[in-house]
Amino acid sequence: MPTASNLSKDHEAGGRVALPPPPVEISRPRFALIFGSLMLSVFLFALDQLIVATAIPKITNEFHSLTQISWLANGFFVTLLAFNLLFAQWLAIFPSKHAMLWTIFVFEIGSLICGVAPNMITLIIGRAVAGLGGTGIFNGALIIITEISSFGERAKYLSLLGTCFALASVLGPLIGGAFADHVSWRWCFYINLPIGGIALGLIALLVETRPPLGRHATYKGYGRPMLKQLVECDWVGTAIVLAWGVCFILGLEWGGIAKSWKDPNVIACLVMSGVLPIVFIAWEHFIGAKAMLPLHMLKDRDVAGAAILSVFCWGVYMLCLYYLSEGYQAVYHASATGAGIDLLPQIVVQIFVMISTGPHWIIVSGPIIITIGSGLLYSVNYPASKAHYMGYSALLGLGIGTAIQNPIVAVQYAFHTQPKLIGVASSIVLFFGFVGRNIGVSLAGSVFGNMLKVNLSKYAPDLEPVFIVDLQNNANAVWTTIPPDLRSSVLTAYTKTLSAVFLIGVPSGVIALGGALIMRDVKMDMGRRQGAGQGGREPTKEIKKDTEALGGSQVLSKEEKQVISPK
Question: Which superfamily does 4-233+292-561 belong to?
Fold first, then answer.
């Protein structure tokens, strides 16, 4: 990894560090193709998180594994979580172009494994491989955009990247449902191969190979020094995070469902889920400058607040998306395609608010709306109209849309006078977003599995055990195997179980509000405020130390404030 000693060679005379070279001056058609390929890559990354939401009943029915529903998401998220910050270290070693090509290639391999998977275990392995590749797609795109765009235009391009998530939110459930109903759920993964291949080719042909950001004076290309830097990356920290993710998921998946809460394996997993974060923090503190999570960065209000916001808002978003789809199909007998259409009110609202940035009060309003929306979803009882779910989820989408994109833009803005820290701050927020995804889906899976058993025994006590097993393995069993005279009772139990899942969003929204209030009240308008002291803020003492360790104070000269746009 680059250290203070070799990065300090970037220091200019007079105590001022040289910023990375200005954006590459390229023609507009080439810029458009590069940016289009990045958007295509990010779109696939976002699509892969969402496309299986409406295909879950088909997949679990084929493999008889409804209780493993959380792994369809978490198989992908656990490697995203573990390798996200490590990839940020790799971006300080390798040219962003090479890192981006590698990560797309691995993502494609994972998608292929998922497409041909003969059983649930192979599918989960494929999801994990795809997650390993996906961890660098968004980070790599952020860095390449930083390299080819001016500061004044960067917020616009970051917001456009946010539309990839919004577009994937709309198309993912629809495409997944259409494939599941009319072709095969396997095409949810095959679709990545040709589209990813196009993005891979465009990036390989059009993106210029440049030294890592902040290392233009010290980068020496591939060789033994690079190998040494790679070895010095925080592999131990990555292993600890990966172990935590697996223990947390298994503990909640097994507890009360596959095994008793008193089972030694369940207890061991849950204990390790509490111990490993402490071990991780201690390790990161111990290795200091080589840590993949610079703990002192969390002392910055914007980073800390954005991290809290990302954890809880992403958690609510993913659990609601997965279990709303499950509810539409199980309770209202919608097809997979129909469930995707039913999700549109929530997702369309998100699109309109995700692509905009603005005053601090907009970020603060997000968690408040999430809390209200989750509470309303909790209040739905069978046989309430499906319109209740659709309307309340649209309100939830309004809150989520304001809360999951703006934290990234906020930290990009907060560190715009310290470019070497932009990637680090962004990676921290992304890391905590992946933590939220894992916690949200895992917790929801545990609540769903445990409460379904409780509610079936309460509302459908005459249901035979064989039917209970069917319901645990296949949501469509409500309409295919349950006796008609018991169906109303079973649907009541199912709706009550979904309400318990949605209730998770209420305390999550309250905690997320605390994170939003921690962040500074600054309007994020990069296009109008380009220089230090123009809407920015003075970095904390710890951040100043970090900047000095990276080669000196980041003072912008008049020339460096000039905006250089693609021709």
Answer: MFS general substrate transporter like domains (1.20.1250.20)
